[in-house]
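Dear Dr. H.,

I hope your travels went smoothly. While you were away I took the liberty of generating a structure for the chain from your last submission, since the lab meeting agenda had it listed for discussion. I wanted you to have the full record in hand beforehand rather than looking at slides cold. The sequence, exactly as received, is reproduced here:
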Amino acid sequence: QVQLVESGGGLVQAGGSLRLSCAASGRTFSTNAMGWFRQAPGKEREFVAAISWSQSITSYADSVKGRFTISRDNAKNTVYLQMNSLKPEDTAVYYCAADQRGTWSHLTFDYWGQGTQVTVSS
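The corresponding predicted structure, in token form, is as follows:
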């Protein structure tokens, strides 16, 4: 089992920045990749970004490319999401997820955090 705890959410004005953190604990040695997803009110959860745990491979949704950066600190078992130039449409609950059973070409994200709220005011 892997436990994930997100932090860093909050209220920010449009154009501002936030950095989300996700601390992983438990059986983290089998982690292939970590990712961030988000879910806005009335919408389905959507992929935001992912990073491989052993290589410098990242992937981003088109809607956040050039504004968000995902990174990791393996020693701290923590993944970050730096969010810049935030827009009101970025408002959502952001979830951290860990993949242990998939591959980079087919991530399954087996474990999920509880989420952290990000609200961007116009």
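Two observations you may find useful: The longest strand covers residues 18-26. The two ends are 40 Å apart (CA to CA).

With kind regards,
E. W.
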